[in-house]
Amino acid sequence: MAAALTGAAARLAEAGVESPRVDAELLAAHVLGIGRGRLLLVDTIRAAELHRFEELVARRAARIPVQHLLGTAAFRHLELAVGEGVFVPRPETELLAGWGIEHTAPGATVVDLCSGSGAVALSVADESRAARVVAVERSPAALAFLRRNAAAFPAVEVVEADVTAPGLLRELYGQVDVVLCNPPYVPDGTAVPPEVAEHDPAEAVFGGADGLSVIRPVVALAAALLRPGGVVGVEHDDVHAAAVPALLTADGRFTGVAGHPDLAGRPRFATARRA
Ligand SMILES: C[S@@+](CC[C@H](N)C(=O)[O-])C[C@H]1O[C@@H](n2cnc3c(N)ncnc32)[C@H](O)[C@@H]1O
């Protein structure tokens, strides 16, 4: 087993995979049906398992995201179903979700815009005592994963809609406690790794020429949805450390606009309170 793992990690490193050893271990654990931590205890691997492992390693070397090969993505305490057609949730978004959870009081109404697989909405439902979590997503492929992942969370209501549509969720105007959003925000034309370019849907990644085409209407929607004192958190690109706080400030309906870094120290999300 150790030799198979070392060989696989070398092959993945050669293919340019960012975390070759971890990915090799995740794939091996998946094939063996055990937790990654238990791999150390395995000294032999059956021929059929080795074949399956090598197949998966070859696909990973072709830069298919490891989460697509596993069929799941880990996010905070959840294992979310993911695959072609849905954005793979990223570790940095766990911070936005955590901020949202901290600001969700028992009985609160939370809206997650651009829900994708449901990473943010379902984490809030899982880790808070929100009464209602509304998850809004437009893509039919993403909605299929979102509905599947949300099935275990009765507080979560999935809404199929375009977050830029005027008057969206009008019935909730002025009543929402927390609005969260991890929108597409990469400026069009930015170079991205093959896993992203070929397997994350473009509409989940790119946010127009300046990367702000979804964030702009989301700021206005958040202001309309939130009750006075309610809060909003929006994830953004590294290049938007000034732009997104400026949009929140320019709206005129928010106070306490703040920027937050991710674990790597890069500017990652902005928050504000509805005046
Ligand atoms: C960056 S992904 C985030 C997904 C999820 N919130 C997460 O953090 O993993 C952005 C999501 O927004 C969706 N989306 C893009 N434009 C949208 C729009 N105008 N209305 C609704 N959803 C949209 C995409 O389909 C994608 O699922």
Q: Uncertain spans, ≥5 residues at pLDDT below 50?
A: none
- How large is the count of helical segments? 11
Principal-axes geometry comes out as elongated
Largest sheet: 7 strands, mixed
Sheet with the most strands: spatial strand order: 5-4-3-6-7-9-8
Structural class: alpha/beta
CATH architecture of the largest domain: 3-Layer(aba) Sandwich
Find the count of extended strands (DSSP E, 2+ residues). 9
Radius of gyration: 20 Å
CATH class of the largest domain: Alpha Beta
Mean pLDDT: 97
**Ligand roster:** S-adenosylmethionine
The name CATH uses for the topology of the largest domain is Rossmann fold
CATH superfamily of the largest domain: Vaccinia Virus protein VP39
Distance between the termini: 59 Å
As a percent range, the share of helical residues equals: 25-40%
**Tally of distinct domains:** 2
| H/E series | HHHHEEHEHEHEEHHHEHEE
**Estimated share of beta-strand residues:** 15-25%
Word description of this protein:
The chain has 275 residues and is α/β, with parallel strands linked by helices. It contains 11 helices and 9 strands. It has helices spanning 2-14, 20-32, 47-61, 66-70, 93-102, 119-127, 140-150, 194-199, 202-205, 215-225, 243-251, and strands spanning 72-75, 78-81, 109-113, 132-137, 156-160, 176-181, 226-235, 254-261, 267-274. A 7-stranded mixed beta sheet has the order 5-4-3-6-7-9-8, with helices on both faces. A two-stranded antiparallel ribbon has the order 1-2.
